[in-house]
Request: fold
Amino acid sequence: MTITKATTHVTQNEALVFERSQTGRRGYRLPALDVEETSPDELLPAELRREDDLEGVPELSEPDVVRHFTRISTWNYNIDLGLYPLGSCTMKYNSRLNEKVARIPGFANLHPLAPEEDAQGALQVMYELQQHLAEITGLPGVSLQPAAGAHGEMTGVMMIRAALDARDGTTSDEAQRRKLMLIPDSAHGTNPASAHLSGFTVKTIRSTSEGLTDLEHLRELCAAGEVAGLMLTNPNTCGIFERNIREICDIVHGAGGLVYMDGANMNALVGVARPGDMGVDVIHLNLHKTFSTPHGGGGPGSGPCCCTAELEPFLPVPRVVKTGAAAYKLDSERPQSIGRVKAFYGNFGMHLRALAYILTHGHDGLREATEAAVLNARYIAQGLAETFDRPFDSPPMHECLFTDKRQTRKGVHTLDIAKRLIDYGFHPMTIYFPLIVQGAMLIEPTESVGRAELQQFVDAMKEIAREAVEDAQTVLDAPHTTRVGRLDEAAAARKPVLRWRPAEKAAGA
Amino acid sequence: MRYIPNSPEERQEMLRGLGLGSAAELFDSIPADVLLKRQLDTPAALAESELLELFESMAAKNAAARRPSFLGAGAYSHYAPTIVDSLIQRSEFFTAYTPYQPEISQGTLQAIFEFQTLVCQLTGMDVANASMYDGSTAMAEAVLMAERVTRRSRVLVSAAVHPEYLQVAETYVAHAGIELGRLEVDEASGRTTLDPSALEKDVAAVVVQSPNFFGCVEELKSFAEQVHAAGALLVVVVTEAASLGLLRSPGACGADIVVAEGQSFGVPVSFGGPYVGLFATREKYARQIPGRLAGVAYDKEGRRGFVLTLATREQHIRREKATSNICTNEGLIALAATIYMTTLGRRGLQEVAEQCAQKAAYARRQISAIEGFSLPHSAPVFNEFVVRAPSDAASLLRRLAESHNVTGGLALSRYSPDRPNDFLVCVTETNRRADIDALVEGLKAS
Reply:
């Protein structure tokens, strides 16, 4: 038998499920209907029934489905494969044990509206996680309801609105209401979006040449007198600890505002310093960053809110509270609450994983993880210091920031460096963020990577810097090893194709 | 700590390489007065076996997870084929990030594109996004979108929408300059009533759930006609997505925005989350849709791939002017739903829906024949319906759980204190006839 070279690689060319569909294939079998059948008309009038027979929905066998999703999965990079140094995204190891915990039938099969007395174990999980997050942040009020970071952010900012209204009185003239939310220019884009959604007007605070919040500018903005609050990330998105944090909080409090902290970078502080001790009033945490619940290709996340005792009455309802030695209940009797931000109680499956993370690490392991994460970032910062431009001199915390300033002379930009890293087997770092640094490259290795691999990454970056000088075209054309090359995103946005349609219909469209 | 690769000795060497004497010096940039000078007061580390034992013991306290159940009301027990959970546990899916680098995220991106297409097919709409947190937040975002599209500020919400969905919408609009009005429910039919005089010029949208919270299928088509005549949008909410296999799609009835809870598609009830919100609309509103979208793109060689597109709507470009603040969505749960819909496919989705409706019809007949019990609403239902008991429903259901080991449904008094004797029963393809018969016996004995 002669083997001829295949012209199309089955895995690399896996089609869409719709293109793979063959009439008559089936991937399921249900038990036979075990009740007396009701006639179709009695069941439901014809005008309420579907008429399209679900045309276009795929028909596939079970092996078809398994092969399809397995094949396309191989086109993804993932943490289990290697370093995923996305700054501020915190791609740390996702333990298999936590996956197992979330799938225990007593949790997975528990209906959210089950009677509370028959769901005590789930309420206990939530209560204990709340207690641990309160201890870690130094902020005693906790709600696990928000479903993601931006959701927790919106919740925290709405709590500030509610707290100010309660203090200043809602009857006061609308024009008198404090509406100004201050946000540093280095902040994540969800901050201004969340503030806007909560009815605030945003003013941007400049950063200093050191990459820190400009205190003078902050004072100036606060002097205007209508400041509702400040949204601050700490360590900030340049990877630098805001060392004036107490003074910053004092200035805002002195002006009658409240301080919200974006907890996206809390993994740099766990066991080392607590936002509650810094003067912060409310924070959200990303359980999918700091507490390692999987990112899942873009969710599910979980964004608990932690706050001071003063702000606790405003947390979303229902709250999970302890009523006896080992008795828990849901409490909705909180008249000052901002209300509900999600049906039921939050992404409970993520709460289980985060609690498992905290208990697996223990108090000493939590601090150890923080130290190891910062150490790894410092290692990379030192390794690349001679090769890439550093916009700020301060020692980095858990992530380090570089720019493409030295490479642009040969026409190589941050995007090209990122794409070339793929050829070396690494996921690129966060690029062009924070926005205040031109050509930003934000690198966060996390604690989940060993020394040898850190060095491989440093070597790859140096090699790319050399290529940028000696063989710029190779970098500009990267990546060279992936299933598809750089995709034309501009063309995709000009004429968006957002769903599959049958060939004849697509042609006519 | 076993999740940290570098040993303590290696870390010491690395610290020396940085010219530092101890790990504490890594935090020299933090002022001493904010450093935590003690150990965290959280428990000591547990071994893997100890941890599992602890969680198993807490899970054992969730007695409700082990009983046959007729609870629905926004979370539904359907059978998920084994391959759904098996495939989403591949490292390549569950340990990947949001697909910002398309060249090494094509698996996630193609799956999102397939998800968007399936959502369009089932809802009968043109465009769907990459998912929302859940059905409740999807509905709140639909209300915000209706205001953006119409520039009108009043939204009428049916009183037969899931009460928790309504509460979420109230929180979302509190500072958005949108006023929520209410559409009453006709007690006899269990359907929403739409008084044409309510449709004034400032109405941006009418929000109606079908099947509604009481299980009744709404007459969406006539709603659409009236709402469109007033220049407003019709937002249709679906909490039981399995119904889409049998009921006429909201799109075919004239909906402008369809939002749904996708948990029914292969996702465990898991005490309320994580679930997945579906969000679909008409082509003409594609640029107003919140959240992320995957679209087709080509490389220089003309090879097809997928990218996140229309990002100009998103907060990292427009900051405070973004269509929504949603960033992380429910990627892995959307993938589970995609695998579920693909595995069940064109025939299976219809068969599951048919079995749900058939079994619910059987349960309705049996329960309505019990003396003292009645079905207060006359409208057609899918797989949920209200039962009126001769006495207080909450205590009846508590007794039923104790005596017959079955969770018989949801006492409506949880949300409506004025309906003490009513409870909501949900039947799916997972409820065997024996379970239904046991429920009926239990109700008779009560």
Chain A touches chain B through 199 residues (CB under 8 Å). The longest strand of chain A covers residues 227-233. Chain A is about 35% helix and 10% strand.
